[in-house]
Amino acid sequence: xxxxGATVVCTGRSSSARTxxxxxxxxxxxxxxxDLVTQLGGTGIAVAVDHLEPDQVxxxxxxxxxxxxxxxxxxxxxxGGELLKGGPTEWNTPIWExxxxxxxxxxxxxxxxxxxxxxxxxxxxxxxxxxLLVEVTDGTSxxxxxxxxxxxFYDLAKVAVNRLAFSQGHELxxxxxxxxxxxxxxxxxxxxxxxxxxxxxxWRDALDPTAVDNYPSAPADFxxxxxPRYVGRAVVALASDPDRIRWNxxxxxxxxxxxxxxFTDLDGSxxxxxxxxxxxxxxxxxxxxxxxR
Length: 293
Fold this sequence. Notes:
The chain has helices at 30-39, 54-68, 82-85, 100-125, 141-145, 152-172, 190-195, 228-240, 254-261, 273-281, and strands at 7-12, 43-48, 73-76, 132-136, 178-182, 251-252. It is an alpha/beta fold. It has a domain at 70-187 and 226-292: 3-Layer(aba) Sandwich (Rossmann fold), CATH 3.40.50. It has a four-stranded parallel β-sheet, with helices on both faces. Helix 1 links the parallel strand 1 and strand 2. Helix 2 (54-68) runs parallel beside helix 4 (100-125) and helix 4 packs parallel to helix 6 (152-172). The longest helix is centred in the middle third of the chain and has 26 residues, at 100-125.
């Protein structure tokens, strides 16, 4: 969004200006994110908000209304459940063996936050026709419909966010607005890069078992991973399309949108790991990974 020259209000709990407990306790802050937006040509504004607290989100809405008058694009990308869902050894745990408090926390972080945010902020998006709501999740509606995702709680959370785009799209369409669910691929977040002891600048070292001491090497299809900017460019492509209403209520991924709009990731490629998963990994076939990037 910064590349496109937008004013971007970056919200969340990890802030250098205000202490709000984060489930991750990461070093990154919303102020750093806002600075990145500005460096890329936009105007980044950081506002510390806990999206589980309706009054805080109401205050955010009032601030945006006073300072900017409206919202053109709302990206509902609130999560926070990575640690609660656990790693692969903890996946496929039956609901009766899962920690109930952790499971319910996953749903609160993934679903309640989105509902609260939409309730408070969508009035600023529907004042004028043309607004775009993007719900970010994991797995498209079609993919998730026939596959179990990690645990009952995680599965329900990710299906619910896709459905939110569908239901909100039904309500937004008469106002001339569009709602789309988008699911990134293998995202190279800071947390993911830390898992393999690499950074964005040398992420391919994670594919070499001898390159990074004391860290596990990544599976071969990590070669199809994508930077966070890739899904950001997908959002920009949707927002820039005067006919974006054709995507209303749909569930898509960046690889699919890259083929439609022609944008690329930072390295000029168009990774499409979701297509790779369905066409190659799940049927256990062999393929050239370059054909999916």
